[in-house]
Structures are given as C-alpha cells and as structure tokens.
Amino acid sequence: MPAEPFGDRLGRVRASMDDRGLDVLLLSVGADLPWACGYEAMPLERLTMLVVPVDGDATLVVPALEAPRVMERPGVFRLRPWGETEDPVALVHRLCGAAGSLAVGDRTWTRFLLGLQRLRPAAAWSPASEVTGPLRAVKDDHEVAALRRAAVAADRVADQLRRGEVPLVGRTEAEVSAELGRRLVAEGHERVNFAIVASGPHAASPHHEPGRRVIGADEVVLCDFGGTMADDHGVGYCSDITRCVWTGGPPADAAEVYGVLMAAQAAAVAAATVGTTCEAVDAAARAVIEAAGYGERFVHRTGHGIGVEEHEDPYVVAGNATPLRPGHAFSIEPGIYLPDRYGFRLEDIVVATAAGPDPLNRVGHDLALVA
Ligand code: ZN
Ligand code: ZN
Ligand code: ZN
Whose atoms come closest to the Cα of 302: which ligand? Predict the structure, then answer.
C-alpha cells in the first residue's frame, strides 16, 4: 500500500475539476477536507480552507493558532497560517487568482462564502460535493482497510451483546446505550456517533431515541450503533451495525418475522455485485419481505454509503440507478416494523469488489437469545 493516499485523491479531484471546467476547489469544515488532505478542521469562527487550483499547488489556509495541529504533507499542500490581524477571506481570494469557476465545500460557513462572492462578483459557483461525492463513494485500499478495522471493532461489541455480556433486563435503554458506546471506545473507536437501543414495542420505531424504558424479559432489544475510528493516517472512518437480541425465547411469530428479515438481508448482500444498480440491491431485500407479506412494514431504504461520514453516497434506494463499482462501501439494513408489538433490523457494511460483495461485519446474524 502506498504510504499516503492524499496525493492520489487530489489527483482524482483535479481530473474531475478539469472535466467540469472548474478552476479552483475550496474545502473548509466538513468531511471532504480530511479525506482530501488528512486534516480535519475544527468548526471554528476562524477560517480554515484548502485551496486547490486545477493545475497548481494546493494551499491549506489555517488560523495560526491551529497550525501546530496540522501534519504538513509536502507535495500535497503547502501551509499558509494566517495571523489575527489578517483577513483570511482576502487571502483565499488572492490564492484563487483569476479563477472564474469555483467549487466550494457544502458545509462552508455562509459568512465566508458570502465574503468571497462579494470579492468575485462575476465568478460562477458550484457545490464541491459534485466533485468529491462520487470520488469519496469509491473507496481506495486505505479506506477499505480502515472501514474493515472499524467494522471488526463494532463486531466485537455486537458479539459481546449477543453473548449476553451486556446486561439488559432491568436496565434502561439509555443505560445500555451508554454501555455500548463505552465498549465501542474500548475496542478502538475515537468517537461514538450513535447507539440506538430500542426495546419491545419501541423497536417498531426505526430511529427510536433510547430512553427511560426499562428492558423486560421476553422481548426484543434492537441495537444499532457506530462510531469513528482513525485510520493509519489519522482520518476517521465510520462503523455502523445493527443486531437484535431477544431476552428469553421469542414467540413463534417473531421468530418467523426475523427469519424473513435474515433472508432479505442475505439476498441484498448477495445482490450487491459490481454492475448491479443500487435500486436493484434495494429491490432484492424488498422482494423477500414483500413475498412474506410484510412489504408495508419495511418503511425505509435498504442502505447508505459510509466512509468518513456515517451517511454518504451511494444510497441503496429505489430511484438510484447508479451501478455499483469496486470500492463502493454501503450498509445493507432492511427492517420489519410491527407497530405496538416489536421490530427488527439487521445491518452489515458491505464493499463491492470484482470478486463479489465483501461483508465487513461477520458477527452472527441470527436472533441471539440472551438472559
Ligand atoms: Zn494507509
Ligand atoms: Zn445503523
Ligand atoms: Zn446504517
């Protein structure tokens, strides 16, 4: 594996800029910046901006007091710290030279964009995500390795849950959520992004907020959790997994519904081959659930891309005709939700490869029975 991925990524950014007739691409706060140059900007009132000319050296403009946090990457960008009495918008404006067509990161503070637009009234502006979105969706080897490490860590927590090592009965959903988060960190995550714990009838709500409900015996506990784990270059990549357990033994109807869900999830994973469209992968899960009579109980898309962000391209959803390419990384997470009774979701992260779908999460998929 080459030592650093950033030169290659900026090379692909410039090729796409060239195709689109863009002169300069500007990245500030948000996930594009660490993906492109390895540095994540704090969401400060002071401007941080990577200025990428289509042909020319990139410059990272940072507040002088943040400069010590930047790992310099010669050949990728040069560093230009700005002092408290300088005007960073004017500095970026000068670095843009005669550029007439500029792309700007989608999460850039409005104040800075408005300032730049005032200085360049004739310029044409577009969202940088038109360039970075499709590129970020296709993971390079560094990124697949990072997603795999995060998935393996999440698998260890899911395995602890499935083995009954996380006490459930008699505790609140919120307590269990906090414990899942602590376990993610213990397994190497820097940050917990979410830990949904939905018990009993709460599991029928896909994005339930874990609360004060005390988990009882003989019910489902749906756990959907993930965090961010640094790769070998300090860039964070996300994990995201859902497993359901049952406290005691499930009634026959619940076991049957869960069996349908497992078959649907496996069908969508198997369908996720290179060249298959995202909507066809979604349809593969949906067909199994519809055939069993639960089509109206599968109320969301089958999955989302994942990388430096929890949710990014490609979305596995009806209407997305994007064909899968090697390196696309996404969740496969169908669910069946029976209001006022229970619900199930089953989620793995999968990478499309020339050799077939590569599920990164390998922990057991069945409905584990825990005490
Ligand atoms: Zn690497
Ligand atoms: Zn999830
Ligand atoms: Zn997900």
Answer: 3
